[in-house]
């Protein structure tokens, strides 16, 4: 017997075939990579319950319809079968036309007097659930089929496909509709005052296999269903009688980012805020304090859930090299993150001479949240002395940087003035190499590296969920959720090193790489402003950029991650 997950794989294949999707399209809609979807469809990894929810939402089906098999799912997709959402969550019985197939194939061996009773009893075998008999469109030709092969609706031969296509395209198909509409005439003799009953009977005729365009059967075989005795029972299946159910399903627009955020993670953040607010009787200040207090365990819980179904399983407590260990309780290790603290000496010198320069201080939004998209090592860091940077690995590197000869631009290394070797993170090294490609400086010399296989997507699901929750909260004016999200991502970065506040993860290499990525992002903003013709006055911290000139054509204004906001304006040489 086929398992539930195998049935789900067949259902996904059938739905992709009917909607014309490829694995890449489905992967983008689920917020996953094409390789992940391919592995799940090839049974090399598992579809999770979260994936089932995302698949159901993508195809606009109920979860029960998705798990009921490809035939039922495709039929619900096209409106030929009612959804299981409103009814009893049971799987549909095998369609009756399967039993009819061998009878028609061996018709010469069957007695002639037995054929009419079989056809007359067909509408009465599944009394009120006749619509379940419809198996759905053939996966080969797209026309309605009454048989299944390996769980997919399909015609048994190429001749049947050709006949179904011809029946749908010839003028005979529409000619059957008037005949079905004339059927209620005998019913008027049974119940003369049927002014109300006539509209309810008329829509049932197409469902009762009178229209070859719907069932794929010849119009003549529908005549026994039009007998007066069948009409009192035909109005029973009400759900599929709407005209919209008989029309082909409209093309669904492809979901694109951001349908990229995990719905489960976003809902968990929202539910947590609501629960805490309810527990605090709506007191915003008390709820804010409680949410900040539980931010670390909550974000670690979200991280574990975001890694379910991931391609890599990261190490949580790998052995730490001496250069990543603090020298004392309040001391630091040997890693240089490139924290910027720079001022444009020429502009400050001009201000001292009496020139007044109007400066705008810009604030970058959620710098550490954006920096979660970093190349992070997956396992333990191992020695590499090749002196060549491998873009598929990440870690920390001992380098000798080249000279920086741009007085109007900050140094990517920050305010370090000492010459010679230093340990930098993956984020800083990649920034220096990017500056080399742009012709701003020479490449650094790499002496040693401590690296592991890396991925830029280790924290991506977590980052997207936090970013989506933050964006929604800002749109709704929900500052409690904004503060809660900020506490989660900021405390996550600050406690994954050697902090005693986080007992679930110890990755000082991650902490340094993420922090250095935030500084690198700020430098790239300064470089973008410089290329656009603005004068860079100062950069400091993780999120402060001071410029001279009209900055709005360069940076979009707002509170989203890709936007900046104006912090203050002042006159250089005067008072702030």
Question: How is this structure best described in words?
Answer:
A hairpin with a 3-residue loop joins strand 11 and strand 12. The chain is built from 24 helices and 13 strands. The chain has 576 residues and is of the alpha+beta class. Strands 3, 6, 7, 8, 9 and 10 form a six-stranded mixed sheet that branches. Strands 4-11-12-5-13 form a five-stranded antiparallel sheet. About 24% of the residues have low confidence.
Number of helices: 24
What is the CA-atom radius of gyration, in angstroms? 33 Å
- Helix fraction, binned, reads 40-55%
Q: How many β-strands, per DSSP? A: 13
How far the N terminus sits from the C terminus, by CA atoms, comes to 76 Å
Category from helices, strands and their pairing? alpha+beta
Overall pLDDT confidence: 78
> What does the largest sheet look like?
6 strands, mixed
**What is the overall shape?**
elongated
**Are there runs of 5+ residues with pLDDT below 50, and where?**
88-134, 170-259
Q: Approximately what portion of the residues adopt beta-strand conformation?
A: 5-15%
SSE layout and pairing:
Layout: H1 4-19, H2 23-30, H3 34-41, H4 49-59, H5 63-67, H6 70-77, H7 97-105, H8 115-121, E1 148-149, E2 152-153, H9 158-169, H10 172-182, H11 184-190, H12 197-201, H13 204-210, H14 212-215, H15 243-246, H16 263-279, H17 284-293, H18 295-306, E3 335-336, E4 341-343, H19 345-352, E5 357-364, H20 367-371, E6 376-377, E7 382-384, E8 393-400, E9 422-425, H21 426-437, E10 445-455, H22 460-476, H23 479-495, H24 508-531, E11 535-540, E12 544-548, E13 564-572
Parallel strand pairs: 3-9
Antiparallel strand pairs: 1-2, 4-11, 5-12, 5-13, 6-10, 7-10, 8-9, 8-10, 11-12
Helix pairs in contact: 1-6, 2-3, 16-17, 16-22, 17-23, 18-23, 21-24, 22-23
């Amino acid at each position: 017997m086929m398992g539930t997950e195998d049935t789900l794989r067949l259902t996904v294949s059938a739905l992709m075939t009917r909607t014309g999707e490829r694995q890449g399209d489905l992967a983008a809609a689920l917020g996953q990579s094409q390789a992940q979807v391919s592995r799940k469809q090839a049974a090399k990894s598992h579809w999770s319950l979260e994936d089932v929810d995302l698949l159901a939402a993508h195809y606009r089906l109920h979860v029960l319809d998705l798990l009921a098999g490809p035939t039922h799912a495709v039929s619900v997709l096209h409106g030929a079968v009612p959804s299981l959402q409103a009814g009893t969550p049971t799987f549909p019985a095998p369609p009756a036309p399967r039993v009819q197939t061998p009878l028609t194939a061996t018709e010469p061996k069957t007695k002639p007097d037995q054929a009419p009773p079989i056809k007359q009893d067909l509408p009465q075998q599944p009394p009120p659930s006749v619509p379940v008999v419809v198996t759905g469109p053939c996966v080969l030709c797209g026309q309605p089929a009454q048989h299944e092969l390996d769980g997919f609706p399909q015609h048994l031969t190429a001749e049947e496909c050709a006949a179904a296509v011809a029946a749908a395209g010839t003028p005979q198909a529409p000619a059957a509709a008037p005949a079905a509409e004339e059927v209620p005439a005998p019913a008027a003799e049974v119940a003369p005052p049927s002014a109300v009953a006539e509209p309810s009977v008329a829509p049932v005729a197409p469902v009762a296999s009178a229209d070859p365009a719907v069932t794929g059967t010849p119009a003549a075989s529908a005549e026994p269903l039009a007998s007066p005795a069948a009409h009192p029972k035909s109005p029973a299946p009400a759900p599929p009688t709407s005209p919209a159910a008989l029309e082909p399903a409209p093309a669904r627009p492809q979901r694109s980012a951001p349908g990229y955020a995990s719905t489960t993670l976003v809902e968990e953040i929202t539910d947590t805020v609501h629960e805490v607010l309810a527990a605090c009787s709506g007191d915003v200040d008390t709820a804010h304090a409680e949410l900040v207090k539980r931010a670390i365990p909550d974000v670690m819980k979200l991280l574990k859930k975001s890694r379910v179904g991931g391609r890599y399983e990261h190490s949580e407590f790998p052995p730490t090299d001496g250069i990543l260990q603090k020298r004392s309780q309040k001391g630091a290790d040997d890693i240089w993150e490139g924290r910027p603290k720079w001022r444009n000496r020429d502009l400050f010198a001009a201000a001292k001479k009496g020139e007044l320069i109007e400066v705008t201080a810009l604030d970058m939004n959620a710098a550490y949240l954006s920096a979660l998209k970093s190349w992070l090592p997956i396992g333990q860091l191992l020695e590499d002395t090749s002196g060549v940077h491998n873009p598929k690995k990440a870690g920390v590197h001992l380098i000798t940087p080249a000279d920086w000869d741009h007085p109007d631009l900050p140094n990517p290394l920050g305010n370090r003035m000492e010459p010679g070797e230093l340990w930098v993170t993956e984020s800083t090294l990649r920034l220096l190499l990017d500056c080399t490609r742009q012709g701003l400086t020479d490449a650094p010399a790499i002496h040693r590296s401590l690296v592991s296989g890396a991925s830029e997507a280790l924290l991506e699901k977590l980052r997207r969920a936090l970013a989506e929750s933050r964006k929604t909260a800002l749109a709704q004016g929900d500052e409690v959720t904004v503060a809660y999200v900020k506490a989660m991502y900021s405390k996550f970065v600050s406690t994954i090193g050697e902090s005693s506040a986080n007992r679930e993860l110890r990755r000082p290499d991650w902490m340094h790489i993420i922090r250095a990525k935030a500084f690198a992002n700020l430098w790239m903003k300064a470089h973008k402003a410089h290329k656009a013709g603005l004068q860079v006055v100062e950069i400091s911290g993780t999120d402060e950029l001071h410029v001279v000139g009209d900055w709005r054509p360069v940076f979009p204004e707002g509170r989203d991650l890709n936007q900046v906001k104006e912090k203050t304006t002042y006159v250089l040489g005067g008072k702030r």
